[in-house]
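Sample A.
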Amino acid sequence: MLEKLKNDVCKANLELVEKGLVIHTWGNVSGKDKKSGLIVIKPSGVSYKSMKADDMVVIDEEGILVEGKYKPSTDAPTHLLLYRTYESLGGVVHTHSSYATSWAQAGRAIPPFGTTHADHFYGEVPCTRILTKSETEKDYEINTGKIIIEKLGEADPLTVPSVLVNGHGPFTWGTDADNAVYNAVALEEIAKLAFYTVLLGKTEPIDQYLLDKHFKRKHGKDAYYGQDKDNI
């Protein structure tokens, strides 16, 4: 069942290790099959060193196990809520990557200090409020998803493809699992650049016109970055 998606999701999870975004068993990637609505996700607590495509877990939109020998990631309820809320999402990633998590632990959004940021995120990378004690003690993972959605508000999730969960770490998404990992890698580099920018004393973001130019030349109907598909 969903063998290609299992392979894609497994590969995406292993890429988190390759790119230095996770250690031990931290982090997870999922992918959604748009036709069936089923989700493939990393199993909970299984080592990346031994992970295979057959280890991936298939669940439905309510989190019920459809196929797999392992339990799904404990973060599965967060992934599922994001998928249910945003039809455009085909992949979700959660990591504890060093720089992005540092901003999350500080409870600080990442301002768009320069054009590298603007190439990937249309505005700041937002940070949620802290979860309350009651939200943490009951339905923790679902409430994590709720505060991500709360923070995004009316924003298109594909123009702001990551939110930092206050005190926790980043969640990132994309059109599929591979694109979600791409965005997670970009986020970590942007978080690193922003960290050093603040150390050097800059606190103000770039002007809106420059943010607009760099984001819109890569994204949207008027984008002109890269090659036409017919020329590749």
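Sample B.
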Amino acid sequence: MYDVIIIGGGASGLSAGIIAKERGKSVLILESANRVGKKLLATGNGKCNLANMNICNQNYNNPYVAHFIDKTQKFYDFWQKLGLKIKQVEDRIYPYSDSATTVLNLLRGNFLPSEIKTGFNVESIQKKDGIFLINDTILAKNVILATGSNATLGQNSHHLAQNFGHKVTELRPSIAPLLTDTTFIKNLANLRAKVKVSLVCGDKIVAKQMGEILFKSNGISGICIFMLSSYIARNQGEYKVLVDFAPDLSLSQVQEFLQKHSIFGLFQKPICQSIIKQAENTGHDLATTVKNFVIENAMLGPVKFAQVVHGGLDTNEFDTTLQSKLVSNFYACGEVLNVDGDCGGYNLFWAFISGITAGENVC
């Protein structure tokens, strides 16, 4: 019998296991994929954006996070003890190597081969006489559910907690590309541009971002779009996106340029053609369209292309140690809970700090 069974070998599960082992607990990690940390390797375009210098409640969908933000030093102590050198790039925290592989190797190196089972699907968790029984074969005193979600490379395992009576809030893709009307962007597929984007619901601008937009055959992507998608995931509504193709120029400066020169001296040819087409269709002048190019019917793309999922296990049913209020010695951490952060290291920070907390508190 193990002291702790951890279901899920991602960022939160591995960090929980390391901390539990440091406390002298016997640990077994059960991972359904053929290796642990596969999703971790894809974070930050492979550079592994570990955290952000501006962690605060406003970066998350759930005020429950407030219980963990004051534990930030434990996050840094964790990496220092593991021997990971980190660096700050603007507000974001990365491994010095710019490689997620470095991070995963350090995490995985804390476990013996016998302490991790990959390709293992957990089909059932039962509790009898104070002991957990996994798949009718493995016994444990504590269970930590760290299975994440079905975003990107993951899979949903919320039902394992639902069997104990836990509720699951609505699941929606977040930090995801947006599907949109393509009337005026059909010819822009695979083009990138540095822009300012505004998310509009009704007649109100509800969010703004600066950054690089990536046009796709069925919509738009890029980090600035990922940031807008988090708002859509957390707030139901009908949306459109306004694109400012010249964010460093005022409307009057664009007007002055276009009075003397062709628009083809401003942007790539396909972008110019799209702006001209929309201006002709709407009756707006070119300068106005440059600063307020409209992309209608913006909605969340498929969950398989999302980085995280909004929604999950109801945090009202877990205490600040991440132990279930319904079942003693049953814990949850990471994305399986109803906690999602903005793009920029906030979700990995939550995965690690919640994993550390769960590992600290298993009995």
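B remarks: The first strand starts at residue 2 and ends at 7. The CA atoms of residues 24 and 51 lie 28 Å apart.
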